[in-house]
């Protein structure tokens, strides 16, 4: 009897708390019957799942409550209400901080232009210092697939230009692995889409590198 | 029993179904006011609403006006007036009774004592509950008034058109019907058990809208409810009043022993409705009939409360970017993640702003000492307060996922896209625009998907932040996905 009452209690709580979108689904799961007192009660067909779903929901509500700094009432409704206000407040803070950051950046840009620019890092120097040579290596790894290794001097935007050029030639990159060290890019890719042989590809790439 | 001239209107109003029109109610009160005045009673609507239960109860005993008059100021209402009065009670009619205070306190004590009633009588059928909560409504009104003596009770709030609801009217109709059919002797003190009342009430229900002046045989049961000697009675009024007390506002402790207590665990919380008295009452009545079917529980305010809660869930969902599922649990889950992300973003931005300010200050300070060009190059090692800027964001769109992690200067971007678009190119473009130096790239196409990882460094002096990166990347991916067609091999 106690268990039954407990089930009834939970079900009735759930009844009142049902999301309107879920109502149709859950009403189907219910079956109505008359218990021994002749009272109409509702139970759910799959009580275990219902309970688990409810507990999942409630535990998440607790987590939400823990995130929010000032909670006055410990009810379900107030958690949601406080969450809404807190989220809005945070969004507002993000906006104001972003604007502030932009303003500061603008100021800084204006100021910097008046000053001499910092000496740029010279990649070419590094290459020479470390004896790294620019190189292109191409291998055939399957029908229409090539394996490419490129070492080039690292300059801003160079990789992007390489990609652009390759794309415009219709080269599809299957996989890519890029790393930088001491002023050089090491680019290892597998490509497909060009029906060149190894030598032709090598020349093509060398031309590309010169152009970027 | 003299029928007042205005009774015709009230009769019409009683026959109305569903809609509670406060204007007619006002009118009705005015009419009954005339009656009262003719009966040499000073009833002032502007006064504070403090009825005594005896008076209320006496309104339902048209047959025994002599006895009634001993308790009141010679007030002789008609049955319709009584019903009107009853309604008037609920919508703020006020009555002048010199013996108010004494009776109030006495009744309050009585009512309070009765809170330990036997809960086993909760299982009654619907009509009994209607009966009970009608009484409890009166008692509750009484109780609220006595306890909240100085609290300003604004009767006009009930007259707010937006407040009224058909359910409430239906509730109020019942006592009208039953009152008109009640014929009791004041001396008829009977402690009937609830079940016995049922047939009486049933028969009284049949007199819907009637004005029975002649005697009926439904005496004993109803008398318990509307007996002017109520304070001396101890009728078993279990569930409704218990819930009443459990849902009382203003510092009264809420015993959650009963199941209803937990049902209205947040009972002192008022859902945006200023009128405490009747709203609380309605919540009580919603709990009455617990264990019944669904129909009896759905009173107006309970539905309102549910709808409000659903509305709040919708609002929460609207705040969250990219909500996936509609159900409540996932809304809450998404909200949790989003709030955490917002907190991280706020911290990151605060740190960036601090850095900027500090960096500029340092620059200016050093300028005065050393060479301008070199000193501005120097970035303070770590932050003044020792915090390293960290950030982590995830953005998901229909076909792409982006994960951005920033630790100090290093930005790690992971992306995952469902369709094969030339993402490597576009993302590297974005990185250039954002002034991120590419340090490492790894990834490739796997079947239908492409997955890449970018390690980059933030250029000195740039104050790009995580959400900016993430948003840009995902925008690019989405637009390219929408617009672009994968390049076919032409060569």
From TrEMBL, chain A:
Taxonomic superkingdom: Eukaryota
Identification of the protein by name: Uncharacterized protein
Organism: Trifolium pratense (Red clover)
High-level lineage: Eukaryota, Viridiplantae, Streptophyta, Embryophyta, Tracheophyta
UniProtKB/TrEMBL annotation, chain B:
Alphabetical list of PROSITE patterns matching this protein: BHLH
Any single biological process term in GO: anther wall tapetum development
The organism's place on the tree of life at top rank: Eukaryota
Keyword tags: Nucleus, Transcription, Transcription regulation
Main location: nucleus
Region (Disordered) residue spans: 1-41
GO molecular function: protein dimerization activity
Cell compartment(s), UniProt: Nucleus
GO terms for cellular component: nucleus
Limits of the BHLH domain: 293-342
PANTHER family, per database record: TRANSCRIPTION FACTOR BHLH10, TRANSCRIPTION FACTOR BHLH91
Protein name: Transcription factor bHLH91-like protein
